[in-house]
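Contributing new complexes? Match this layout with inosinic acid.
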Amino acid sequence: MKNVTVVLGAFYGDEGKGKVIDYLSADNKYAVRYSGGNNAGHSVEVNGVKFAFHLLPSGILYDNVKAILGNGVVIDPKVLIEEINNLKEKGYKVNNLYISEKAHVILPYHILLDETLEEARGNKLGTTKRGIGPAYCDKYERSGIRMEDFISRRFKDLLRENIRSKNIILKAYKKPKIKFDDIYKEYKEYAKILKPYVCDTITMLHKAVKNNEKILCEGAQASLLDIDFGSYPFVTSSNPTIGGAITGTGIGAKYIGEVYGVIKAYSSRVGAGPFVTELLDATGDKIRELGHEYGVTTKRPRRCGWLDTVALSYACMINGLTGLCVNHLDTIGKFDKIKMCVAYEYKKKKTTDFTTNIEFLSNCKPIYEEFEGNFGDISKCRKFEELPINAQKYINRIEELTEIPVKFIGVGAGREEIIVR
Ligand code: IMP
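Output block (do not edit by hand):
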């Protein structure tokens, strides 16, 4: 009864998880987001129409799929309502959305605090300023407002109390006071709109598991941004790794079957923090341009570099991955020569052990193997054997180094441009 599949990012985010999620969605009854909030950005294209989601699971686009925002997610009601309305404008009924009553709510003071704290530390972390960190802080500090509170009478008192304490912090940072009346007036209306979607998703998912229905957990952010396993403090405030799929949904570990890690055939990162294979030269710029590496959420240009299989092997390890999806093989195939990092040099010694210790990562130099590029147009390939031999060699080497099979290969931007093995 291992009917739960998890798709998660195996690097620093933006790996194109939407593509494999999209492929798997048709076969699933449930699509669940388990961590993060609208710091994420999924682009999906269906019947020529482009969708950019920050909060909603991509599975929402399928009528036969129940789309769930799990208890591990933090929800900005305003953004969620915008996404629902956008879908309605495009003809979707959105009657397949379910929001966990245990999910925490992002309120305007979380966003203000995210901005204020980033400013105070000189934009050191490069957060998305969506209020994610402060909302998770409140959750763990136990003053957060959950969906079940938000849609109840308790909201008024909880909001008043939170605003009182946030104003003390804001005053210390010389920021203007936030006003209870304004926020309450606006957000009680949002609560009314969202109320019909709020329910006990934990029991719902448990019943689905028992009925042997297929569930797809859609990861947001990525393994190396994980609060525990990522390059702390340059991380997000939740667990995008496999543990998050359990604590963020209420699904037991024994029901999880496949765990797919998504990467690109090169590496990218947004925001600050170490990045061993980063290319601060014309090659890095070329990857960015060819791969359209600009953030869906913040539009920031992404930092780019060659594929780092040392970091990737760590992501395979901490998640217990059963398969990989390698996207943008077509993009990397546009180079004459391609490099892949196979080990690090640290203090004059070669190592393939990865740790997210900042001092270690900042002082590691990548050791590369070189591959022949010029794959030509591979967008029509649907079988591995149809790929040019140099492209096959590149994929084979990823499998050898990580000891994980590459089960999906992205060969173009279109949703059907994928090889499934
Ligand atoms: P936060 O999640 O907004 O607190 O940002 C913390 C760090 O995670 C920053 O470096 C962000 O750029 C990064 N980050 C958050 N969400 C994503 C994502 O979906 N893709 C890539 N990077 C992300």
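Reviewers usually confirm one structural detail per submission. For this one: Residues 13-14, 39-41, 125-128, 130, 132-133, 220-221, 225, 234, 236-237, 270-271 surround inosinic acid (CB under 6 Å).
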